[in-house]
Amino acid sequence: MNSAIRLLAWAFALLLVALPLVAVVNGWVAADHWPIQRLRLTAEYERVNAEQVRAAVAPQLGRGFFAIDLAQVRTAIAALPWVEQVEVRKRWPDLIEVTLREHRPYARWGRDRLLSDRGALFSATGQEALQGLPELAGPDARVAEVVALYAQAQKIFAGTGLSVVGVRLSARGSWRLALGNGAQVVVGRADPEPRLQRLVRVLPQLLSGAAQPFERIDLRYTNGFAVRWAEEQGMGNGESGMGKEQPAPPDAVPPSDPPPPAAAPAPLTARAIPYPPFPIPALPISHSPFPIPGSITT
């Protein structure tokens, strides 16, 4: 009986000592003691500046060291445009340390978002001033596939004098490329890389005999492809016998992707370009240089 009483007394004494410590550490009491007065920021400034970070942290400055809510500080900084990842720590007696990393844009994605070099899709202010980024688009879940085909298409067109500046994948799975000269290449749904390889094989012959640059190439044929030439002033449409074709807006997704004809038009027509008789090896789609974007830990 006496031992039980002694044990209960010891437990009560420890509780009396521990409760004040827990209350102080959690900011339940003495919340205004040892106030946070200083902010130390570690970052490579390019689009986020110290004033923005300080404004995000300001509501917590002046609170006690143990009362400050680091989760709120982290959330406030992570909400700033261009911030990809942020770490926040407290240093005794009055210091908050913030380490952040900015998004580095790799490409434009659709109408109003950017794709970072780490595979994250994000929106940010000032993106209209960015120059030279490729224009990519497609379902968000297929970012890695779009980037992989863009990278492979750059390799395929290397040495042709034409650059690939955009790749789009429609909701129906149809591929379309934009070239640096303003032309479009409609690839279709299946085997995009073999089709592009076959095009590049005959591209020198195609360009050498052309009086005008091409505006659009359609690769959705089994034995050739259709070419739409730029309209020569006063000469009418580049495809004889056809109405004027209006190019799709840059961000438009084709409403449908009808199946291509079983064969290209006869070689004597203005539209038909037959493929060469030699086989073209098919290359597998390479992996994306970054993972499919997911949640970003802040």
Can I get a quick summary?
The protein is an alpha/beta fold and 298 residues long. It has helices at 2-25, 50-57, 70-78, 143-157, 192-208; strands at 38-42, 83-91, 95-102, 105-109, 113-116, 121-122, 135-137, 164-169, 175-179, 184-188, 214-218, 224-229, 272-274. The protein contains five helices and 13 strands.
Give an account of the 3D structure:
With 298 residues, this protein is an alpha/beta fold. It folds into two domains: 31-102, membrane protein fhac (Ubiquitin-like (UB roll)), CATH 3.10.20.310; 113-274, Cell division protein FtsQ/DivIB (Rossmann fold, 3-Layer(aba) Sandwich), CATH 3.40.50.11690. The chain is 24% helix and 22% strand. It contains five helices and 13 strands. It has helices at residues 2-25, 50-57, 70-78, 143-157, 192-208, and strands spanning 38-42, 83-91, 95-102, 105-109, 113-116, 121-122, 135-137, 164-169, 175-179, 184-188, 214-218, 224-229, 272-274. The strands form two sheets. The chain has a ten-stranded mixed beta sheet with strand order 6-5-4-7-8-9-10-11-12-13, with helices on one face. A three-stranded mixed beta sheet has the order 1-3-2. α4 runs parallel beside α5 (192-208). The longest helix has 24 residues, at 2-25. It starts with a helix and ends in a 24-residue tail after the last strand.
